[in-house]
Amino acid sequence: MTKSIVCGIVALALVLGCGIVEVVVLSDGYGNLHQQCLGAMEKAEAHTLTEKEFVVFRKNWEKLREASELLLPHSDVYELNLRFAEAQMYARQQNFQQLSAHLSVIEELLRYVPHLMVPSPVHIL
């Protein structure tokens, strides 16, 4: 009986520990990507953002996306994917008005999505 309780407590501690590490790592990743987005927005407003620079920004999202898909609602991750794809086309066309609009949506999502990782009654129930 005592062995079962100890095993349960150890398993719970491992799950909680891994969850906390994952939330911290992903939150940091989203924070870094948000800063990159702000830089891209400034360049788009100044009409100096190149497609190559945007591709680097998008590749950083793709790395973060792989980890995000395990923990976050797929609809939010999917929305970011769509916005990045559309924005890349506008970067290629040098359509800075549309690019700026999409980057502002991406920026909002990069601020909103990380709070979904934090376990709270609102997110659980």
Global structural class: mainly alpha
Judging from the principal axes of the Cα atoms, what is the shape?
elongated
Radius of gyration: 18 Å
Summarize the helix and strand pattern as letters: HHHHH
The end-to-end span amounts to 32 Å
The domain count comes to 1
CATH superfamily label: IL-4 antagonist (De novo design) like domain
- Main β-sheet description: none
CATH architecture: Up-down Bundle
How many H/I helices? 5
Q: In percent terms, what proportion of residues is strand?
A: under 5%
Helical proportion, percent range: over 70%
Mean of residue pLDDT values:
87
List low-pLDDT spans.
Answer: none
CATH class: Mainly Alpha
CATH topology, by name, is Four Helix Bundle (Hemerythrin (Met), subunit A)
Organism: Candidatus Fimimonas merdipullorum
Protein name: DUF4363 family protein
